[in-house]
Structures are given as structure tokens and as C-alpha cells.
Amino acid sequence: MTRAETRRTTARRAQLFDQLVELFLAEGFAHLTLDDVAARLHCSKSTLYALAENKDRLVYAVTVHFFRGATERVEAELARGEGAEARIRTYLEAVGRQLEPASARFMEDIARTPVAREVYERNTRMAADRVRMLISEGVESGDLRDVHAAFAADVVASVMVRIQQRQVAEATGLADAQAYRELAALLTRGLTA
């Protein structure tokens, strides 16, 4: 295969994953068969099998693709923020914005599907660790009051896990994106020096 062919194949795979993310975010995925997905994307099932060997692996790969792109966009937003409070707020609000296109059905499907839930849980742990780093940096710089960064991050992680597990939505009626905005407001106002 030539380099040009490899680039075209890679671009086509990325395009298919983007289309799959868009479809899954809008409608969920648990109810869709591979035949449904192929018809919706105007491709063959063999094209889908080239992406993953079965529906579970496809759901896993699409979920990874979604969270990888979301992480890149969140980090790009974070890079523009200045000051510890603004960076924490920017980070959590950006996470929320990345979840805004996700339908309730998509979030429920993730919560009920082990391969997708595992990806969301791993990304939630990484996000909580990122918040802990931002808090630590803010305390060290004096931008934030002297709090125990690991404790504050643990509290944030607990809420993030509850958001991910749909417990916040059930208890409050808040969509995940809105819950992240509320968490950002609560956290940054409570940490301000």
C-alpha cells in the first residue's frame, strides 16, 4: 500500500469513527444492530468489521474515539486559561461542553454497557487526577486557599463518578454537562483565596 493509500484509509477510518460518534451521541447505541449502523453510515458491514470484530469492540472503539477527541479539546481550552481558579473552572466547564451533544440515551447506554462504562470510568479517573493537579498547582502558587489538594480532588472525583454513573442525573435531574458546570462553580467558589 502506498503512502497516499494509507493516508486515505486512515482518513476514511477517522471519518467513519466521527460519524459513529455523532450517531451514538444523538441516538445511543444499545438498540442499534450492525446492520442498522451500516445502513445509517451508508457503508457495508464488512467496513464496520474492518473497524472492529464485533459490536462490543465497535462500541468500545467509538467510545475511546469520543473521549480521546473530547480530552484533546478540553486540554486545548485549558491551555488558554490563566490563574488557578479560572483553569479549574475552564477545565470542568470544558468537560461539560464535551458532554453536551450526548443524548440521555447515549449516557444510559454507556452506563449499562460494560465496555463503554469502563472507558468512561477511566476517563473520569484521569479527569479527577487532572483536577487534583490543577488544585495542587493553585495552592502552591497561592492562587487558591490552602486546602488539602488530594482531599479536594477526592471529593471532585466522587462527584464525577456519581455523574458518570448517572446518580447525579437521577437525584437532581441535571444532565451530565450541566452537572459539570455546577461542580465547576461550587469548586472554584469554595477554593478561592
Automatic annotation (TrEMBL):
Which keywords accompany this UniProt record?
Answer: DNA-binding, Transcription, Transcription regulation
Domain HTH tetR-type, chain residue ranges per copy: 10-70
Q: Which domain of life is it from?
A: Bacteria
Record-annotated DNA-binding residue ranges = 33-52
Transcription regulation listed as a keyword: yes
Entry's Gene3D superfamilies? Homeodomain-like, Tetracycline Repressor, domain 2
| Any one Gene Ontology molecular-function term assigned to this protein's record | DNA-binding transcription factor activity
Which PROSITE patterns does its entry note? HTH_TETR_2 (PS50977)
Q: Where are the transmembrane segments?
A: none
Q: Which InterPro entries match?
A: Homeodomain-like_sf, HTH-type_TetR-like_transc_reg, HTH_TetR, Tet_transcr_reg_TetR-rel_C_sf
Q: Which Pfam families match?
A: TetR_N (PF00440)
Q: What is this protein called?
A: Tetr family transcriptional regulator
Q: Which organism is it from?
A: Rhodococcus coprophilus
